């Protein structure tokens, strides 16, 4: 864990830097000026040597999409390889903060520096805002030494980038790691073609929760729309309507076309174990790969990283079942630090 020689502060927008507009809060550029003003006003706050970049224009994170993930990935890699930074702080809106943290966890595999994402529930300009505590708390966490990888800092807590979820919309402790059961151990060696050097392309992905009354025609319409990968949020430990032959056949047809089907639990504390119930085994037989204890954010980000790298369905399915950065395992590989 090296000391910070140069910190890159990347600002993508979000509530932390928003200002009032005629229709409500809107993203505003130039957050670096506000950060410098805060450092002058509160000299007890400490920053290592730092540089600054911002997304142009900064966005409300509700508008985040895969293209932005790739832009952020490129900016982080450039900060390390071109600007000589050995730590990165990414300021991001909270609506999709956990999604971006998860996606970047897979897009930055092997980068070798710590990356911390944070944001705020109230703009930095508002009295009583959590913005500065989150920002400087994230900086302090980096200064104390973090293992390489993606982390999320919020409300005084440092969270794993591929395990965090937003649980609240009106509390400063809005993010947490859900205690979802995980199995297995970390992949000891990164697969060729899946580290941060790998360029990705946009992928047509979808997420669908199972619910009582879901019709096969609804599922088929989604699968027939060109979806390359589907995260299916199953009941409990990975069950679904096993007596609906038409729905199961829609899944089989999609799998035969090469669509990757990933099953996760829709329970906040759940995990997938298809062999527990016959209703789960029916989904596995129809072509679903078990996502163990992955969150929705991690499942979506991992699917994007794998399919966006151009992997064929069979290879993507293999790596979906392996733990790449701690997203679905509690243990690290031999000799590795656990983030």
TrEMBL record:
Q: Which UniProt keyword terms apply here?
A: Hydrolase
User: Per the record, a Pfam family?
Assistant: Asparaginase
Record flagged with keyword Hydrolase: yes
Active site (UniProt):
15, 94
Q: Where is the Asparaginase/glutaminase C-terminal domain?
A: 206-317
Q: Which Gene3D superfamilies match?
A: 3.40.50.40, L-asparaginase, N-terminal domain
- Asked if the record carries the keyword Cell division, the reply is no
One term under GO cellular component: cytosol
Where substrate binds, per the record, is at 61, 94-95
GO biological process assignments: aspartate family amino acid metabolic process
Identify this protein by name: asparaginase
